[in-house]
Here is the input.
Amino acid sequence: MSRTCRIPSSVFLASAVGALAAILAFSSPQDAFGGVASRVEPDVAHFDGTQVVGPGECAECHEPETAVWLGSAHVSGGKVLTRSDEAKAIASALGVRRIKSDERCASCHFTLQAQEDGRFKAVSEVSCESCHGGAAGWVELHNDFGGTDSTAESETPEHRADRMRLCDEAGMHRPTEFVSLATRCYACHLISDSELVAAGHPIEDGLEFLAGSQGSVRHNFVRGAGVNAPASTEQRRVMFVAGQAVRLEMALRGLARDPGQGECADSLKAAVEAARGVLAAVAERSELPTVAAMLEASDLGPDAVAPALLHAADVVRKAALEFEHGQDGTGLAAIDPLLPIASDS
Here is the structure.
């Protein structure tokens, strides 16, 4: 666990549109859509640096995925951040002397790891654990295929199901759990901090979960026989709806923290309406009770107060999880005209 991976640090959020959602590994429809217990996280935006092991631990077994990641905007965006006049202006307005050392900035722009002195250090740019969660609690579970001599190829379906369940319970945002993973994406790509916004930080950088996930970093290596292949049409349909649902949920939660007036609140309200518009278009093309429930719960009006916003967010999340785990995408061909084109991430 003490192994160090020497990788260039830093990535600027605006240069990495779609990238945070992009570290996805796709599996079979049964693996992707079935059998995982739904859970509503009490603090969906929280990231625990005390659980970070660093990208070197992941790279040991995930060499092809790591190679693709090293060529992505997650890594190359670092130079943009350190040289960007916009970033310097935002930091100055916030009184931040060094972005990489400030937890408020670095929590999204880097991978922070707790140190023995209680401080947090950026051990990498946006990396594996930024998307999949701090791995200290689940990395050994993730690596256990059923015994000393077992491999991913020899693992039994029963053991794999148990392993995935244990990883979920330990806090892993698994690649085939789209709602869970999209939550990590929008935790950084949808800003709800009014002080950051007042300092000039962009609120929403244009991330669309499906498009971002199908850029350069798709990580479809396990079922793709070593090939970074795109998701199937069926998976894309489910990802599209799940991503819009999470965008709606996170915007509602952001408004609950700052339900007043101002640029931040106005932009979050716009994000709510934009997500609702997409989901309404989905509802027009396919009869989905879960999507109808999301739309009904989030129809609150411009003056909704925090308790109502949080209740709506909870309903949306539960409906999104029910949708994801109850759909394999085969019956959603009618929404294909709504699906975006992959972005270059």
